[in-house]
């Protein structure tokens, strides 16, 4: 700076106005270039920080998606097992062989169980509410995440509709039957039941009457076909989850 001041002072004393103006213009240009370089470095540092923060959010979404996939795998297995039982029970109803397959009707009662898919959407919500969401706006990942969570909402509605129906039917059955014999027959070991005063024929008769009701059979019939729809949705969501993980990997490791 001392050097520049000395040059300016000398030019003024020598009355070299044109040279002074050229010098002053050159000094301004140097200052502007310095400012631009400083801004560029600052922008680069901020961009680097933003990328780190975005990646942290994406890694969290990836982790939560993996948790979802594990849960979906268990739901598919459980729903398929129950659906297969209910389909067999439905065939038995149509063939009028219910009394020959009483055990089948006992275990198909699992159709009354209320399963819910409970996704972990914390990472996604956190990203949406942050300033970093714009970094993936209108990208392939943005599209996949939107499809994923729309399907999550569809699944929740489907499950809620089915579970509310089964609860309604079960509440009605509770007003019509004393389920003590039915529950004992369903959950107590046979050797334990054999020690009771109630003969097996009474347990069986109670269950025959219980499973012959429209309310019970409505649930069995609904599960026989609606579970296939749920399972298809679980599979579709699983495929989207894998695509999301793959896309996040390409972003965070790129």
Automatic annotation (TrEMBL):
The lineage of its organism: Bacteria, Pseudomonadati, Bacteroidota, Flavobacteriia, Flavobacteriales. It comes from the Bacteria. It holds the Pfam family DUF6090. The chain crosses the membrane at residues 20-41. This is Uncharacterized protein. Keywords: Membrane, Transmembrane, Transmembrane helix.
């Amino acid at each position: 700076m001392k050097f520049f001041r000395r040059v300016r002072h000398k030019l003024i004393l020598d009355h070299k106005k044109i040279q002074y103006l050229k010098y002053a213009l050159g000094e301004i240009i140097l200052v502007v270039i310095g400012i631009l370089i400083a801004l560029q470095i600052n922008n680069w540092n901020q961009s680097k920080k933003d990328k780190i923060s975005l990646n942290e959010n994406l890694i969290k979404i990836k982790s939560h998606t993996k948790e979802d996939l594990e849960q979906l795998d268990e739901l598919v297995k459980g729903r398929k097992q129950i659906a297969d039982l209910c389909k067999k029970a439905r065939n038995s109803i149509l063939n009028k062989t219910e009394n020959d397959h009483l055990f089948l009707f006992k275990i198909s009662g699992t159709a009354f169980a209320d399963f819910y898919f409970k996704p972990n959407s914390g990472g996604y919500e956190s990203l949406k509410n942050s300033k970093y969401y714009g970094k993936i706006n209108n990208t392939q990942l943005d599209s996949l995440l939107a499809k994923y969570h729309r399907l999550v909402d569809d699944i929740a509605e489907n499950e809620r509709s089915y579970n509310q129906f089964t609860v309604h039917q079960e509440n009605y059955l509770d007003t019509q039957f004393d389920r003590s014999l039915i529950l004992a027959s369903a959950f107590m070991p046979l050797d334990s039941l054999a020690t009771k005063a109630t003969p097996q024929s009474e347990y069986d008769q109670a269950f025959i009457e219980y499973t012959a009701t429209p309310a019970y059979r409505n649930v069995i019939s609904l599960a026989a076909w609606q579970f296939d729809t749920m399972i298809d949705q679980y599979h579709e969501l699983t495929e989207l989850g894998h695509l999301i993980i793959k896309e996040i990997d390409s972003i965070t490791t790129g």
